[in-house]
UniProtKB/TrEMBL annotation:
Keyword flag Transcription: no
Tree of life domain: Eukaryota
Coiled coil (UniProt feature): 259-286
Pfam families given in the database record: CM_2, DAHP_synth_1
Xref: PANTHER family: PHOSPHO-2-DEHYDRO-3-DEOXYHEPTONATE ALDOLASE, PROTEIN AROA(G)
GO MF, one example: chorismate mutase activity
Protein name (Swiss-Prot/TrEMBL): 3-deoxy-7-phosphoheptulonate synthase
Length: 360
C-alpha cells in the first residue's frame, strides 16, 4: 500500500500556521454544555470541535453517551461557531448517522481498532467518502493491527486519512494512564511518512496536569496535531473528569507550546550535531558488544544449571538485579521506569537463552 501526499491534502488544505488542534469535551452531555464549550473555543487555534456521542466503556454501568441526539447539538456548533465537527464511530450505524448530520471528521477508537471485523464494517460504510477518517492506535501495542486498520480504510478508497496516538494499556502501574511507547508511533510514521499523525495527550496522561508536557513531546517528535479533551467544567464532567482541561487552560497551552524546526541549515549547529551523533554511534556499538558478552556469561550459567539440574528462574537473584540497577540508574539520572523496562527485556532474553541450552 502507498500513502501518497494526496492522502494528507485535507490537512494541507487547511493552510494552518500551527499544528492542527482538535478539542472539545470527552462526552456531549447536554446541549448547553456542548454549545458553551464550543463558543469558548471559537476564534482560537482549534479547527475541529470534538465530542463523544457514543462512548464505548470498559465496564457496563458507566455513562455511554447520549447517542444520536447529540449530533443535532453538534450541528448547532457548526452553525454558531464555524468550527468543523469530529466524533468517534464504532459501527456502520454510527457512520450513517454522522454522514447524515455532516460530521466532518470521524475517528475509530482504540477498542474498535483491535477488531478487523469492526474496522472493515466501518470501511465499507465509508467507502469512497471525502470525510476525514483518523485511526487511534489499538489498546495494546500492536503495530500490525494499527497498520491493518489503515490499510483496510485505504483499500475502501477513503482518501483523507490520518492516525491518532493515544498510548497503550498495561497491567503495570505507571506514571501514565496509557503508556506512550513513542517508538511505535515513530515506526508507523517511518512506514507511512505522508500519513498525518496526531497525539491524544489526554488519554496518554489521564491527568490534566500532564497534558502540556505530553503535547510538547509530541510536537518535538514532529506530530502534525493534537486532540485535547476540553470541558467548560472538568470537575463535573460525566466521563474522564481528571484528564480534561478548561478552554482557558487550552488557549494558554496553545500560546506556550513550542513548535520545533524539523531541521536547521546553520553550519555550526549541523557540525555539532554530527559530532554528537558520531559519539552515540560509538556508544551504540559498545552497548551491542557488552550485551553480547553478557549473553555469553548467561549461556555459561545455563550450561552450569543444566549440569546440576537447576531451574532457569532464580527469583531472588532477579529481584536483587532489578533493585540494584534501578537504584544505580536513578543515581545516574535515568528514569527508573525506563531502567526497569530495559532490564526486564534483558532478563526475558536471558531466560530464552538459557531455556534453549537446558532443553537443547
Amino acid at each position: 500500500m502507498e500513502i501518497k501526499k494526496e492522502n494528507r491534502s485535507w490537512l494541507d488544505a487547511l493552510a494552518l500556521s500551527h499544528p492542527l488542534v482538535i478539542a472539545g469535551p470527552c462526552s456531549a452531555e447536554t446541549e448547553e454544555q456542548v454549545l458553551d464549550t464550543a463558543h469558548q473555543l471559537k476564534g482560537t487555534d482549534v479547527t475541529y470541535y470534538r465530542a463523544g456521542v457514543w462512548k464505548p466503556r470498559t465496564r457496563p454501568g458507566n455513562f455511554e453517551g447520549v447517542g444520536a441526539l447529540a449530533l443535532k447539538w453538534l450541528q448547532r456548533v457548526k452553525e454558531d461557531t464555524g468550527l468543523k465537527l469530529a466524533t468517534e464511530v464504532a459501527n456502520a450505524s454510527h457512520v450513517k448517522l454522522c454522514l447524515q448530520y455532516d460530521i466532518d471528521l470521524l475517528w475509530i477508537g482504540a477498542r474498535s481498532t483491535v477488531s478487523p471485523f469492526i474496522v472493515q464494517e466501518i470501511a465499507d460504510a465509508l467507502k469512497g467518502t471525502e470525510k476525514v477518517v483518523l485511526v487511534k492506535n489499538p489498546v495494546n501495542p500492536d503495530l500490525s493491527l494499527w497498520l491493518g486498520a489503515i490499510e483496510r480504510l485505504h483499500a475502501s478508497d477513503i482518501k483523507n486519512l490520518g492516525v491518532i496516538h493515544r498510548g497503550f494499556s498495561t497491567y503495570e502501574k505507571t506514571l501514565y494512564r496509557n503508556i506512550p511507547e513513542w517508538q511505535m508511533a515513530i515506526d508507523l510514521k517511518n512506514k507511512y511518512p505522508n500519513l498525518p499523525l496526531m497525539c491524544d495527550p489526554s488519554h496518554i496522561g489521564g491527568k490534566r496536569g500532564m497534558v502540556f508536557d505530553i503535547s510538547q513531546t509530541a510536537l518535538d517528535l514532529n506530530f502534525d496535531g493534537l486532540m485535547i479533551e476540553t470541558h467548560r467544567d472538568p470537575e463535573k464532567a460525566w466521563s474522564d473528569a481528571t484528564q480534561q482541561v478548561t478552554p482557558t487552560t487550552l488557549i494558554k497551552m496553545m500560546e506556550d507550546l513550542r513548535v520545533r524546526k524539523e531541521s536547521d541549515k546553520n553550519e555550526a549547529y549541523n557540525n555539532a550535531l554530527d559530532l554528537l551523533r558520531a559519539q552515540i554511534d560509538v556508544i551504540d556499538d559498545q552497548l551491542i558488544s557488552m550485551l553480547s558478552k553478557r549473553m555469553d556469561a548467561v549461556g555459561k550459567i545455563g550450561t552450569l544449571k543444566k549440569d546440576n539440574n537447576v531451574a532457569v528462574l532464580q527469583n531472588t537473584r532477579w529481584t536483587e538485579i532489578l533493585s540494584r540497577m534501578a537504584e544505580k540508574g536513578n543515581s545516574k539520572g535515568l528514569n527508573p521506569e525506563f531502567v526497569e523496562r530495559f532490564y526486564k527485556d534483558i532478563h526475558q532474553e536471558s531466560i530464552n537463552h538459557q531455556e534453549k541450552i537446558i532443553n537443547g
